């Protein structure tokens, strides 16, 4: 049995912070040039050896940045990992660097999936996020190329105050592009992202409850930095409707229009079965093994079942929780994950404070530790953007 206290289920690996874009919410505060102290190719191979020390099944590795395509050796690193039995996904920027030739090379190197960040259903919204005109059009071309060469595609969307009302458009885009997963990330105020970018607690609840409805359209949905989707899923599976507001009603109404158009397309193309659903894959209770080709584990959050390796070898509980717990140049990943006091805290839901510490969903949710740290300066504090009042259910464990 996989024990997330003993080894991570997923590892995010920032090969470089270099990127050609200037995103207003960038966690990494990415720069145009590569850092001179980045891990070398040989050091990267050493990291792969460390990941294998956790034993089978090996952690899923997501190669990210910045833009990992800014490193010429990204193909060698991916091939080294995949040939070692490690499943590798890659998330890169929507820039001209992502040519069809490079996408084909990534597939040949063993990449299992590519993820592209799309923060708006049109160029006006998306390009304003990314800081460079033409990024939306380039990203659409990248998605089409990836699908064409046979690589599964995931779309990542950062939810902020700026694009709340465009989310139904994102659903339609995901359906039209036949993506295998829509990963909805709720902004954490770190890096370039500011606190005022965050939706309110009620807006969080409205969007999460709406994402449950989205899954009925046959689109796999995952939330990131918003573990309370697992609680929403648990409640709604049992016929308990969370407290929703005006935003939920607006999004729900617009989703119905998206559904109508999707059904019209199905009739014209003669495909799909009526009422087919893929389901939420965020991992609440019973649906945590995703139907998008990559499994899920319940209860994963910052430092619990996951960690982040920076471009210079620093290890963090996540890319959005900027607490250095060690460096791969000094310690092994196993030593850091098992011995760091920060990881020990984060792997124990009983150490959570405030209402998160009392909540019956603390084992499958636990809130965003990164957002708690960003807002309160305490990674064990309660989730700042959750309106749920604990005590309606018995303690829920994976």
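^ Assign residues to that structure.
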């Amino acid at each position: 049995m996989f024990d997330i206290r003993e080894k991570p289920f997923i590892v995010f690996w920032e090969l470089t912070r270099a990127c050609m874009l200037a995103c207003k919410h960038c966690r990494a505060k990415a720069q145009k040039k590569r850092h001179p102290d980045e891990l070398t190719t040989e050091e990267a191979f050493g990291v792969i050896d460390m990941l294998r020390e956790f034993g089978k099944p090996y952690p899923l590795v997501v190669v990210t940045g910045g833009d990992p395509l800014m490193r010429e050796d990204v193909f060698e690193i991916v091939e080294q990992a995949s040939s070692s039995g490690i499943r590798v996904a890659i998330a890169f920027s929507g820039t001209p660097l992502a040519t069809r030739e490079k996408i084909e090379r990534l597939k040949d190197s063993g990449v299992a999936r590519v993820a592209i960040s799309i923060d708006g259903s049109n160029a006006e919204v998306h390009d304003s996020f990314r800081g460079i005109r033409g990024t939306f059009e380039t990203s659409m071309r990248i998605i089409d190329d990836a699908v064409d060469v046979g690589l599964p595609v995931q779309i990542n969307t950062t939810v902020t105050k700026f694009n709340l009302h465009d989310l139904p458009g994102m659903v339609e885009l995901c359906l039209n592009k036949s993506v295998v997963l829509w990963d909805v990330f709720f902004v954490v105020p770190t890096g370039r992202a500011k606190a005022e970018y965050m939706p309110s607690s009620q807006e969080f609840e409205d969007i999460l409850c709406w994402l449950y409805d989205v899954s009925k359209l046959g689109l796999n949905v995952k939330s990131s930095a918003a573990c309370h989707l697992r609680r929403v899923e648990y409640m709604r599976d049992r016929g308990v409707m969370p407290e929703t507001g005006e935003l939920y009603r607006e999004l729900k109404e617009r989703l119905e229009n998206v559904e109508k158009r999707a059904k019209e397309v199905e009739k014209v193309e003669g495909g799909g079965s009526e009422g087919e659903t893929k389901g939420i894959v965020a991992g609440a209770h019973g649906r945590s093994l995703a139907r998008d080709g990559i499994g899920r584990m319940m209860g994963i959050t910052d430092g619990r079942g996951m960690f982040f390796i920076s471009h210079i070898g620093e290890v963090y509980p996540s890319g959005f929780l900027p607490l250095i717990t060690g460096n791969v140049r000094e310690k092994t990943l196993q030593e850091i994950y098992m011995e760091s006091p920060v990881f020990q805290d984060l792997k124990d839901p009983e150490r959570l404070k405030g209402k998160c510490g009392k909540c019956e969903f603390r084992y499958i949710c636990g809130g965003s530790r990164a957002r708690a740290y960003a807002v309160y300066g305490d990674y064990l504090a309660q989730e700042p953007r959750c309106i749920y009042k604990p005590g309606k259910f018995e303690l829920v464990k994976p």
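The first strand starts at residue 10 and ends at 14.
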